[in-house]
Design brief:
With 243 residues, the chain is of the alpha/beta class. It contains nine helices and seven strands; from the N terminus they run H-H-H-E-H-E-H-E-H-E-H-E-H-E-E-H. A seven-stranded mixed β-sheet has the order 3-2-1-4-5-7-6, with helices on both faces. Helix 5 (101-113) links the parallel strand 2 (93-98) and strand 3 (120-124). Helix 3 packs parallel to helix 4. The termini are far apart.
């Protein structure tokens, strides 16, 4: 196959997603329960990652075996629960950042309910400020917050060397439902949310175009979920400022 993305229509894409779920290791009951609870309680539940992406998070964490995880954007805590599940072997410390008091409260409730407070630390407040106060290195960093903040967040992470030498940054939703690529790329998107995602698309197109030009890092943008960008140090000299 010379191309990178199969041309599914919306109905076929849903069938493919279901097929992938059925043929992947099942989510732990706690994650499945939390996913359904968020979907039923929150009108903006579309901000939450899919069930399959939760399985991807667990798989990724088990494979990479991070000792410290940083998450920018917590929402109701679904992804933090996935990182917790995926790091049971390494007993990783997980720090998750959230701006909204409402979502912070929802996440704290979920963390208490599912008994993950021993390793998950939730910090409420603006992520750009919190990133300036964090110490040490993180082996896995997941960025899934306000889309107009991605460029600044990643810049701070790299400048402050919060990413470990063999760590990876995973930036979610870099397609902005397709609108990062072009305003005509999401005909299925309803008019109620289109202006929001159009703004996200503009910001993320700038981010996508700029991060690949940073000489310190290697970048891979994968057409999975709503677009996921992998970022790692190009080499140790790049991390140490000797490019």
């Amino acid at each position: 196959m010379l191309g990178s993305v199969l041309p599914f229509n919306e109905e076929t894409a849903d069938r493919i997603s279901a097929y992938c779920e059925q043929h992947s290791t099942a989510l732990p009951d706690c994650l499945g329960e939390h996913w359904k609870d968020t979907q039923s309680r929150f009108s903006d539940a579309d901000k939450m990652s899919s069930r399959l992406q939760g399985a991807w998070m667990i798989f990724t964490a088990r494979d990479r075996k991070p000792k410290r995880v940083l998450e920018i954007g917590c929402y109701t805590g679904y992804s933090a629960l996935a990182w917790y599940e995926g790091t049971k072997e390494t007993q990783a410390e997980i720090i998750t950042l959230e701006l909204s008091p409402k979502m912070t409260a929802a996440s704290r409730q979920a963390f208490k309910k599912h008994g993950v407070e021993d390793r998950v630390k939730l910090i409420e407040g603006p992520a750009d400020q919190t990133l300036q106060t964090l110490e040490g290195e993180f082996d896995l960093i997941f960025v899934d917050a306000n889309k107009d903040g991605y460029a600044a967040y990643v810049q701070t992470i790299l400048d402050r060397k919060l990413l470990s030498s063999r760590g990876v940054i995973l930036c979610d939703n870099v397609f902005a439902r397709g609108l990062s690529v072009g305003l005509d790329c999401a005909p299925w998107l309803n008019d109620h949310v289109r202006p929001y995602w159009a703004g996200c698309g503009q910001a993320l197109d700038v981010f996508n175009s700029s991060i690949v030009q940073d000489p310190r890092v290697d970048v891979l943008l994968m057409p999975v979920f709503d677009g996921v960008t992998y970022i790692k140090w190009r080499d140790l000299d790049s991390r140490d400022g000797q490019t």
